[in-house]
Amino acid sequence: MLQEADFIQESIRERAQVTFRNHLRHIAGGNIKAWVEQDDGILEFPYGPAGSQERKSGKSELYDYMKDFPKRFDVDFTELVFHPMADPELVIAEFKAVGRHRETGHPHKQTYISVVETRDGLITRYRDFWFNFSSPLVQPSIRH
C-alpha cells in the first residue's frame, strides 16, 4: 500500500511526465507559443551540430529558436518511454520523431534521449541528447 509520501511523489512524477508529453504535443502540433509558455528555463544541446549554439535560455530566445520548426517539419513523436528517477520532477525520456521535412519532402527520423528538469509543471532545464547522423548538412560535435 502506498504511503502518503509515496502518493505525493507519484503525483509529482505524473505532473512532470504530463508536462513533457505536453511539450511534445505542442511541438508536433506546431504551437510554439504554447510550447514556450510551458518552458521556464534552459534548453541545452550537448551533441548539437558543430558551430551551433549549445544553450538557449529565456522565453524570447527559446521562441526565436523554435518558431520556424512547424514550417520546416511535420512530425509525430512516437515510442515514448519514461525512466523514473528518485527525483520525481526529473524526467528521463526516450522517444522518436517520425515525419518529413516540409521543404524537401525527405523523411525525418530521429531518436532522442532527453533529460528534463521540471518544477511546478514548468520545464526549468531541458538537455536534448540527439543527433541526426543521417543528415549530410551537419557534423557532430562532442563538447566537454
From TrEMBL:
Pfam families, alphabetized: SnoaL_2
Protein name from the UniProt record: SnoaL-like domain-containing protein
InterPro entries associated with the record: NTF2-like_dom_sf, SnoaL-like
SnoaL-like domain location: 21-126
